Amino acid sequence: MAEPMPKQQSAISSLLLRSSGIIFFLIFWEVSSRMHWIDPYFLPRFSAVITELWNLAEDGTLYSNMIISSARAIGGLAIACVAGLPLGFAFGRWFPATSAVLDPLLRIMSQVNPFLVLLISTLILGLGETTKFAVIAWVSIWPLLFYTMTAVRTIDPLLIKTARSMGISESGLLLKILIPAALPTIFTGLRISAGITFFILVAVEMLNASSGLGWYEHNAAMNFEINGMYAGASVIVLLGFLLNRFFISLERSLFTWRAPVEFLLGGAKTATRLALWRPGRVGIAAATLAIMGLFVSGSFEIVRVNTERANSLAGIDAGKHARHLGSEVDK
Amino acid sequence: MAPHQNPKIEIRNISRTFSHTTVGSDGSREFTALEDITLTVRTGEFLAIVGPSGCGKSTLLDILAGLSPATSGEVLIDGVPVTRPTLNRGIVLQGYSLLAWRTVRKNIEFGLEVKNIPKSERRAISDRYIALVGLTGFEDHYPHELSGGMQQRVALARALAYDPEILLLDEPFAAVDALTRENLQNELLRIWNETGKTIVFVTHSIEEATYLADRVAVLTTNPGTIRQVVDVQLPRPRSEGDIRSTPEFGRIRHSLWNLLQNGGAHA
Amino acid sequence: MTRSVSKRSSWGIHAAQVGIVALIALGWELFPHLGILTANTFPPLSRAITTILTDHLFARHALTSIGRAYGGLTAAILVGLPLGLLLGGWFNRFQQALEPLMELFGQANPVILSHIVVLFFGIGTGTQLFVISWLSIWPISFSAINGVRSVDPQILKMAASLGIGRWQLFTRVILPSAAPAIITGIRLSAGYAFIMLIAAELMGATTGLGYVMATSAETADMNSLAAAALVVTILALTTDLFLKQAGKRLVVWRYQGGVD
Question: A280 near C106, Cβ under 8 Å?
Answer without folding.
Answer: no
